[in-house]
Write a structure and sequence with these properties.
By secondary structure, the chain is mainly alpha-helical. Helix content is 74%, strand content 0%. It contains 4 helices and no strands. The model has no long low-confidence stretch (mean pLDDT 83).
């Protein structure tokens, strides 16, 4: 007498996937998500670099305009000092985040940027990789940057900066 195998291969019910098919589908979804993130990251990666370059050029032009007596010294010193202070505030916040300690309020970082520390904030965001992803923070940050530049342009145009000499 021969023994025949009575075990049947399990066939999935209609509408259900085998474990191997599920694994392939999950891997495909993961690859698609990674590709989407990479495309978004690549598209957004130029913006921070351009903003970093803009910040450095802005500070250099501010110092240059002061040296050529086109801009009051107080404005150049204000931007440089506030940028340094803002960079330090970002560094302290980054350190606190790593250690799980008390953090600097986002409103404090925004006020520093609005007052003229935005070049230091941009440099800190790129060098320290801090506050460079959170969309809500970056949106408000960009608004403070634009507001500061508009206030500077208004001050230069109206002659209000001459009062700072």
């Amino acid at each position: 007498m021969s023994l025949q195998s009575t075990t049947k291969r399990a066939t999935p019910k209609r509408g259900t996937a085998t474990p191997a098919a599920t694994k392939r589908a999950t891997a495909k979804q993961t690859r698609a998500k990674r590709a989407t993130r990479a495309a978004q990251s690549h598209a957004a990666s130029n913006t921070p670099r351009i903003l970093l370059l803009f910040s450095v050029v802005f500070l250099a032009l501010t110092v240059g305009a002061t040296l050529w007596h086109m801009l009051p010294l107080t404005i150049a010193l204000g931007y440089l000092c506030l940028s340094l202070l803002t960079f330090i505030a970002y560094a302290i916040d980054k350190s606190a985040a790593k250690r799980g300690k008390w953090r600097t309020q986002e409103s404090t970082l925004h006020i520093l940027a609005l007052m003229g520390g935005w070049p230091g904030a941009v440099i800190a965001q790129q060098l320290l990789r801090h506050k460079s992803v959170k969309t809500s923070f970056r949106t408000v940050f960009y608004l403070t940057l634009i507001a500061n530049l508009l206030l500077l342009a208004y001050g230069l145009h109206s002659g209000a900066t001459a009062l700072l000499i």
